[in-house]
Specification:
This protein is mainly beta. Helix content is 3%, strand content 43%. Strands 1, 2, 3, 4, 5, 6, 7 and 8 form an 8-stranded parallel β-sheet that branches.
Length: 129
């Protein structure tokens, strides 16, 4: 499925979804693979998400594979499959689960020479299993 216009609502598909440069989807999407050149806002559940140059995703994303081209934008949270149940609010306590402390500071070493940091979007959320 390819979207070049505006769509608001839910899409539940076993196919791939492509959002063109002039396309905008606002809602809940479930698909195999999603390629974004335009805009996506809401919640996305898919196997793989690719945000192209100029593409913008503002969503809670549940996916196995995420790739972002330079000048692609991702604002939101990315969760790995199977984490949906762990990331929901505790309605009784009205609190989120406490993050687990890191056991080894060496896990945080990032080689700045690779340019990895420069390729990341402005805001990301990282979580650890």
């Amino acid at each position: 499925m390819h979207v070049d216009g505006e769509f608001e609502g839910s899409i539940d598909s076993s196919d791939d979804i492509s959002i063109g440069k002039t396309g905008r989807i606002c809602g809940r999407i479930r698909a195999h693979a999603v390629n974004v050149s335009g805009e996506l806002e809401g919640e996305l559940i898919c196997d793989s998400l690719h945000i192209e140059r100029g593409g913008r995703v503002c969503a809670n994303v549940y996916c196995s594979t995420l790739s972002i081209d330079p000048d692609g934008t991702f604002v939101g949270e990315r969760h790995l499959p199977g984490q949906q149940h762990r990331l929901t609010w505790d309605v009784e306590a009205r609190t989120m689960p406490e993050p687990e402390p890191l056991s080894d500071a060496q896990d945080l070493v990032i080689d700045l020479e690779t340019g990895l940091i420069d390729s990341l979007p402005d805001r990301i959320t990282l979580s650890r299993k």
